[in-house]
Automatic annotation (TrEMBL):
Mg(2+) binds at T16. Belongs to the shikimate kinase family. The keyword Iron-sulfur does not apply. Substrate binds at D34, R58, G80, R136. It is found in: Cytoplasm. Monomer. Its EC number is 2.7.1.71. It is an enzyme of class 2 (transferase). It catalyses: shikimate + ATP = 3-phosphoshikimate + ADP + H(+). The gene is aroK. It comes from Saccharothrix coeruleofusca. Binds 1 Mg(2+) ion per subunit. SUPFAM superfamilies: P-loop containing nucleoside triphosphate hydrolases. This is Shikimate kinase. It comes from the Bacteria.
Length: 167
């Protein structure tokens, strides 16, 4: 068993929103590894970061991705930092991997209203987002089989683009 689409990209790219819509559109199950980590830890991501640290979160995330890649056959959305793990990047080989891109301005706008992302909760979310994009763009592109820029698209249009490219 293997996901039909794995969706990744930076925070605010719409992995969760578009992944869920795509799954609804084609009638398959949706799964988000952030939810799996929260369920396994029994607490929200912000509490995992505060209580246990980012490294502990990354270890749980790596395990959640590995498990989902083996057991889920619908749409699988990853957390934005999942690709930081070289082991995860290796495990993504051979899968249909959709990279949803978003620029800094739109990414900050989309994530700005939520306090649920501890990495972006600092005093300068624009600088943090820029640093995050600089560090991760090569990693997203290393594993992606399809890339969709989402800045000027509605979630429905992103689903259309994903289906046109992979369907
Ligand atoms: N294409 C889009 N256009 C406008 N808003 C979007 C789009 N995709 C997602 N959003 C909004 O951005 C926020 C973050 O989306 P989310 O799916 O949680 O992103 P991710 O899982 O990639 O971090 C949500 O409020 C969502 O409604
Ligand atoms: O980019 C990141 O490092 C993170 C992104 C979040 O997921 P989303 O990308 O779905 O917001 C979540 O996994 C955690 O807050 C860390
Ligand atoms: Mg998400």
């Amino acid at each position: 068993m293997s996901p039909r689409w794995v969706v990744l990209g930076p925070p605010g790219a719409g992995k969760t929103t578009v992944g869920r819509l795509l799954a609804e559109r084609v009638g398959v199950a949706f799964r988000d590894t952030d939810d799996d980590v929260v369920a396994a830890a029994g607490k929200p991501i912000s509490d995992i970061f505060t209580d246990d640290g980012e490294a502990a979160f990354r270890a749980m995330e790596e395990a959640a991705v590995a498990e989902a890649l083996e057991s889920h056959d619908g749409v699988l959305a990853l957390g934005g930092g999942a690709v930081l793990s070289a082991t995860t990047r290796r495990r993504l080989a051979g899968h249909t991997v959709v990279f949803l891109g978003v620029g800094m301005a739109e990414g900050v706008r989309r994530t700005g209203l939520s306090s649920a992302r501890p990495l972006l909760a600092g005093v300068n979310p624009r600088a943090t987002f820029k640093a995050l994009l600089d560090a991760r763009l090569p990693l997203y592109r290393e594993v992606a089989t399809v890339e969709v820029a989402t800045d000027d698209l509605t979630p429905e249009q992103v689903v259309d683009a994903v289906l046109a490219a992979t369907g």
